[in-house]
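MODEL INPUT / OUTPUT PAIR
PAIR INDEX: 1
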Amino acid sequence: MSRSRRKGLLPLLWRQFGSERGASVAIAGVVLVVSFLCAAAPRALEVMTSAELAGTVSSIPPTTRDLRSSLFDGPPIGPSAAGDAFDGELDPIWGVLDDGLRAVRADVPEPARSLLGDPRFAVNTTALQAEGYDLGDDPFNKLVLLADPLMAEQIEIVEGALPAVPDPAIYDFDRDTVFADDEPRPGEPLEFVLSVETAERMGWPVGAVRSLKLAPPGLQAVRLSGTFEAVDAESDYWQLTPTTLTPDVFDDGNRRATITGGAFVNPAGWDAVYSLTTSTNGVILQTRIWFPLNGGTIEGASAERVLGQLRQVTSKAVAITADVEMPTRVKFSTGVVDALSTIIARSTATTSVLLMATAGPLGVSIAVLALAARLVADRRRPTLALIAARGGSNAQLRSVLALEGLVLGLPVAVLGIFAAVLLIPARAAPGSYLLPILVGLAPAALFALAAAPGSLRQVRSDLGQRGSGRRRVIVELVAIVLAVASLTLLLLRGTQASETAGVDPLLVATPLLLSLAACVVVLRVFPLPLAALERRLRARKGVVGFVGAARALRDPVAGLAPVLAMVVAVSVAVFSGAMFATLTVGVDSAAESTVGGDLRARGPIFFDEGVAAANGVAGVREAVALQDAGTSSLTVGRSSAPVTVLLADTAALAALQSGLADAAPDRAALAELDGDAVPIVMSKDLAAQLGAEVDEGLTMNGQKLAIVATADRIAGSGVADNWIYLDRAFTETVVTGGFVPRILIVSLDAGADATAVAEAIEDATTSTFSVSTRAQAAADIRSSAFVSGLQLALAAVLVLVALLTAVAIILVSTINNRSRSRLLAVLRTLGLSRRQTGQLIAWELAPIAVTAFVGGALLGVALPLIVLAGIDLRPFTGGAAQPALVIDPLLTAAVLGGFALIVAVASLLAALGSRTTTLAAALKSGEE
């Protein structure tokens, strides 16, 4: 007897497990997919953040990226503590500065310290004009003398030799000695080297001696000892020491051109360079200090920590010498701080949008698992009832099903986690595995809950409307109140741009609570029109409509789970389409604001002749010059503020930019004096800062100003804040230097090729400049890892909810298969045709599906509004303003049509078995 029981136990368990194999497969599949996505999401976000960091930081020029500072004086002089920082004669001069900078780096905490390379520094003078040679028609020559202790590592001599150590007579004299304007200073000429290109452009042969004019006193003889080429012309060094490799050429067309080149002197002869400076001769020294910053190695997980550490380094001046009484202090800066702030804001916004989009589908997955657990418990009812009849306790019944759920869920969840780790190699916090593990444990909990004592009795659900008691009303009211409260709090809080990555509970909870509230409304609303339809169909001859409406009303197959699935599926579909369209339009608007037209050129000065030549190029509709005149002091009452001055032909620029984002204001008053005041447009942020002080009057360089409008930006200017904009007619009265614009905004004819037009403008103006187009600017923004990753994630969520919806419909249809089969078998014996059978089956889900689609569509429109109210999307678009909601009707209609097809196909597949059920089988099932 005992052997017989042992022999039959495993087959019995296997038969029990396989009695509803479809539900088991559904559970395993849902757990696998959801656990994989939950484990993959934080890893994918880490990959996106790291990719964005690498791309963004590497694109920042070294003059902005590196940790840098300037000291408008000579460097501290002295040897290093160990005496070996540099070789030979260099250490006694530069060693103490190297020690001080290495100490600064040592004080930077990790991981920021590992991003910083060895300290670099170089000292240069202001530009000094060369004299003492036959100028002819050649341009003026100016030299910027530069001393760098590591010069020899950067250059390779092509002709001549490295500069010799200067003659001590150059600097070994009384500093109070007064020279006449044209009096040569003592000593041999000071030697230097120029790049090959600079020497050729200046027409300065190797060995030639000329004089540098000091203003005043005296002349300093200099000799070109050699020419060089860069060891690595692509090195960041040449951008950090401007004019050394490629000279600067200034030619405004009004006077002889001037070529300015960087000239390396022997770094051991620093005293000679320092001797050229006095308190009266206008020669200023600048010590450039920088740490190369390798931002490409910043990982997403450490971005916040690096940002905080770099902010700490750049927040205050630090000592670079060990002199306790009078230490030399400098304040460092780096553009990586702003870049990291933007990237972290993008990461936070991406996380928030994805959490809002996935909160609903996560709830749907739990609902689907609950449906599957209900189906399994329903099929286990006879066995469980037998165990209960033989003395099995409620805890034992729950344990049996919980064990089955644990076997189904946990191993599959572990498999999903392993697949995520394998497919997405990235660092993830240990806590990121908690959610997928909970997903794996969910079937065990749901199976245990499905084994409630009351579930063992077979009851008829069509004898009254389910859930009409007080408990349902309370639950529904709680769901609606929580949804309204969360939405109210979110709207009151407003848009937030956070530099701290993390989960915002309010943003996560609001979509799910709204989905539950929408389900409550749908379940409460759909019986009302259905009851009216039933009363109307009762008087008609056809039986299908009346029976279908009556059954859908009295015994609805759709409970919370399938309704939640359909509502969330439709809402996510509409939400994804709306977000895609909103971001697309937002990016295009930001590109318009950045470029200011179809094409933006920046480079040499665009004089009126050049602008006229550009307007004559085929494909150009209009070209307008725009000047950034730099920073000037704006006097407001008794105080002043530095502002950027923008100038243009205001009427022409407004006409060119009409209809674009951040277009220049179209104000006729800008071209005419307001009494004795020049009319200006002021940036909104500057106007807000000045506040009531504006009423006290505005002046710049003694000229009164009058504000006629405010704006966020002037498209194409490249200036974001603290600016004023005025007509070029008032250039001479407000700023000095005349109208010398270096920006050209161009609008093109329809179909014109921007690249070809840009080349034609270069030929027409005989100038070379950098060009950016609106399409290129939009493509650059869309190339962001966050933008592409968000679009991919929304598409994945869309597919997930579609699958969950299909599974939910199939499960709920399977659960109700017995009651449906009994009804159809009886009606067939009364003459119901196959066609009528299909129509009756369609009545099961059609009423609730239509209502759920309407509710889901409305919720889908509301979710993007919640995103725009609670999440700052400007880091995505790069625009100055939060993008407006955009609904693409064609895309929305296509997505809704696709989901309607999914619901129809799933309903059809689930109900196919009902067509073949015989009356005998149905009656036998009812007896069981």
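PAIR INDEX: 2
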Amino acid sequence: MTVRCTDDERRAEVARPGSGFNGIDWVEVDAADQKLLRVGFLHPLPGQPDGVPTGAAPAAGNVVVEGGVRITGVRVLSVSAAGAELTVRVDRAGDFSPYTLRLVRSAVDDRVPAGFDPVLAEATFSFKANCPSDLDPAPAAPAGPAPRPAGAPADYLAKDYAGFRRLMLDRVAALPGWAERNPADPLITVVEALAHVADRLSYRQDAAGTEAYLGTARSRISVRRHARLLDYAVHDGCAARAWLSVRVTAGSDAETQGIPAGTPVLAADRATPAVPAADAVALLAGGATGFETLTALTPRASRNEIALHVWGGRDCCLPAGAVGATLLDQPATGLAPGDLLLLEEVVSPATGRRADADPTRRQVVRLTSVRPGTDPVARVNVLEVGWSAADRLAFPLTVTAPVAGSGTDHLVTCAVARANVVAAQHAIGVRGQLPPAEETRWRPLLTAEPVAAATPFPADTPASQALTQDPRAALPLIRLETTEGSWRPRRDLLNADRFDQGFVPEREGDGRVVLRFGDDVSGRRPPAGTVFEVTWWRGGGAAGNLGHDALTTLVTDRSGVLAVTNPLPAVGGTDPEDTEHARQHAPVAFGTQERAVTTADWVAAALRLPEVDNATARIRWTGSWWTVFFTLDLRGGQRLAGEPGLARRLAGRLDRFRVAGYDLQLRDPVDLPVELRLWVCVTPGAFRSDVRRALLDLFSDRDLPDGSRGFFHPDRFSFGTPLYLSQLLAAAVTVPGVTDVRVTELHPVGVAPGGELTARVLRAGDTEVIRLDNDPSVPEHGILHLDLVGGL
């Protein structure tokens, strides 16, 4: 009896090494000579190395070809074995019908040879398999098992409401007494209720396993918790911040009463610069973007526009890198250290028109010094103001300039200063009340709207750094108040004690924010029935990165506001971290170095600070403890000694890398002042004065008007950076009018030459930085001598 199956497991079993049986794997008809057959076996044939079974090689009498319609009686003439392949020669080629090649023991014994599988001892083939045909070459599918009786099979893939409903309706369709399909039918209602319950149970069943692993979790809250256990903080975004400039009327309510912190300012197209709170609600509902001031501001009309004093000059500018200016103090402005000052181009120096003023020529600085004075010639009061090197002017700011085509007598004031400046944040406060706390685990839903997150605003840092935020350090802006005190948001409750009144805001992927409280072990559990007064701030994300002059409407009932705007674009707005991004980066977060033990660790930690260009560290025993001595090369030639509080701020940021028992000491690099003398041959016809001026600019330590840097700019040299003669010569010959140049003197100031010209290099020590300021007042900071010959 022949049995047909739909699988081929027997072939795999026979082909397994060590099975002890052999069998036919395939039959191939030679395309050029159809009387030549090649038969492949699962193992090497008898008579071959490792043959299965052992014994004599197959002979012509062991192979039989049967079948055929027109051509029958095909005889085997000869066979030859080679490995697992048997070549068979027959006396004639068959027709298009199928043939069967069988193995037998002999011509008179048609039993299967010993050691060959009975099922695989024969194979069906066609002599005309390679011949062109209009028919489908695939053989007819063999008869398989008898089909199962028709019915309503259970759908084991049903996992949701629709699937369960369909499954139950298909099942009850077999009941002859139930033919109703009206949605209002009570039995249909029962089916749908059961489908709903099954859907919820199926979700919980899947979620228990799905949310248990970082790689499969779908909930953002689950991914956030998994990542926290891997020491990776999934951030919730960051609110954008911007500087606001306000102008007020003298003696008005806005000047006398001030503008409190938390005052909203909107990006709305309104004709008036101020609107009452009632109108602001409608503007926000209409899609206006809202910010709130971060600190209180006491504006003065005298600070609306402050002239930059030029001491009688005509075509004047503040150069790039400037860290101070002179302001006209009439009327009195009352400026003090810590105030914010906006330097702004208000008229184009090229056209003399306000509309052509460059909006990128604006910068906010925080004053570090204010010194009153007078101009005895002009008989006016002035203020000498200064700011930190971190706030140094990023561009040359033209103060006064002649209008093109109007002659030299017509000068225009191109830049002014403004001092009614305050920081604002993309967040609008919303107040409400949470439902009473419950006895069981309480996870109240705060809102489904975006909640802003931010870091505390630093009120004493330079203005260039005040708006910078780290999204991973930002916390959602939520405040809870009860009769017993305030509750503050935390990143997690892992280190909280049982008295800590903190909570963790957790943002889901759809924007919902859930509040998680403690359990009286890690964080305090709110007593049952506690009612929280909640204040949260709506906003945040990249949508708050508005362009300049977008915030133009102040929400206040106080009169006297003339204008409000953001002179610079808002910065820092960041969307919440994507779940997939966290899933990819959390597993490798442990590789980030967050502690410093060796000197290399300390140097790497220092280089993370944006103010640091390079650093060296040495660890020494100071008698009672270990001390890490830092030498910091700050950007722009900044020095710790010249910036009050800078060393304290940098040490505070490095302290998080410090291990117990170590102290930190920060110091400036050791200057290596250079005395340099160049002999320069000037091209005939060139003016020596022009060449001298160009060389002095080239070998200066400042930013040049064309945006390039002088050769001895502080950021071009760091610890141990050598000074090669070839660099000096290559730079000097680029100056127009220079035909030849030679270095005739090169050595540290006050030190006799030590073979630097012979070695053609001046080398600096590990903590030394080459310096050449070429300031006659302080020659100990480096001197440049120029000996020019030729020219005019």
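PAIR 2 NOTE: The first strand starts at residue 24 and ends at 29.
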